Amino acid sequence: MRVVLLAQAQEDLDEISEPLFSEVVKRLETLKDFPELGAPMAGPFAGWRSTVAGLFRVVYRLTPRGVIEVAYVRDCRRSPLQ
User: Fold this and answer.
1) What fold is seen in the domain 2-75?
2) What integer is the mean pLDDT of 13-31?
């Protein structure tokens, strides 16, 4: 399978520095062999899957053409209360 980063996912990935960047890339590589690794999402995100790579959530879907489309890579850390 092939992994394609949609525009927002590419922007998100460009903002991540080492060593976290390597963790995310490793997870994306793993998805090529195990595309159903992530848990299916529900509600308005039905059809999408989610997996965690270090501190980041990767949201993606499998297309009928056998492509893994990554919608975004979001930092899951909570900001401190102010």
Assistant:
1) YaeB-like fold (3.30.2310)
2) 93
